[in-house]
Amino acid sequence: MILVLIGYMGSGKSTIGKALAKSLSYRFLDLDDYISEQESASVSEIFKTKGEIYFRKKEMTHLKAILNAEEDTVLALGGGTPCYGNNMSIITESDNVKSFYLKLSIPNLVTRLSKEKDHRPLISHLQTKEDLTEFIGKHLFERSAYYSEADHVLVTDHKTPQEIIEA
Ligand code: S3P
């Protein structure tokens, strides 16, 4: 079984994914880290030197390979993964995959991302909380349709990591 965690940047996919994998004795994979290892470069470096389209192609290739694996896995996607190519159809149509959208409100995303934006190339240039709020509002509006195709939508505001894992 492969449990796929979906959600915007800063929604807790990696943190929750690691703890969930531990509690189920599953392997944990973070798609960004996986791509970084394969490319021997950070996500920011890949965006800078090879461009976003190159990153999206790699993201799709590695996603498909991981979803074909036999091993029980918790997989944290990148925030954009469900929104490119046919990634979301592959996820929802695979029999061995269950997907979960970790849904967090815009103010909570802004609070988290204002502290964690430097390694995220799409938002690292945004200076103020107002800039982040405006960007995330529009971006999330575009992406929500993809995220909402997940098998389960978990609203994570006001929930502890343990409560999210149990849900
Ligand atoms: C992206 C999210 C990032 C990473 C890349 C692009 C996006 O992953 O894949 O910077 O398009 O939302 P996180 O969601 O883990 O930050």
TrEMBL record:
Name the UniProt key words of this record, in alphabetical order.
Amino-acid biosynthesis, Aromatic amino acid biosynthesis, ATP-binding, Cytoplasm, Kinase, Magnesium, Metal-binding, Nucleotide-binding, Transferase
Q: Which reaction does it catalyse?
A: shikimate + ATP = 3-phosphoshikimate + ADP + H(+)
Binding-site residues for Mg(2+), renumbered to this chain: 14
The UniProt entry, under SUPFAM superfamilies, shows: P-loop containing nucleoside triphosphate hydrolases
Q: Where does substrate bind?
A: 32, 56, 79, 143
List positions binding ATP: 10-15, 120
Compartments annotated for it: namely:
Cytoplasm
Which named protein is this? Shikimate kinase
Q: What lineage does UniProt assign to this protein's organism?
A: Bacteria, Pseudomonadati, Bacteroidota, Flavobacteriia, Flavobacteriales
What is this protein's gene name?
Answer: aroK
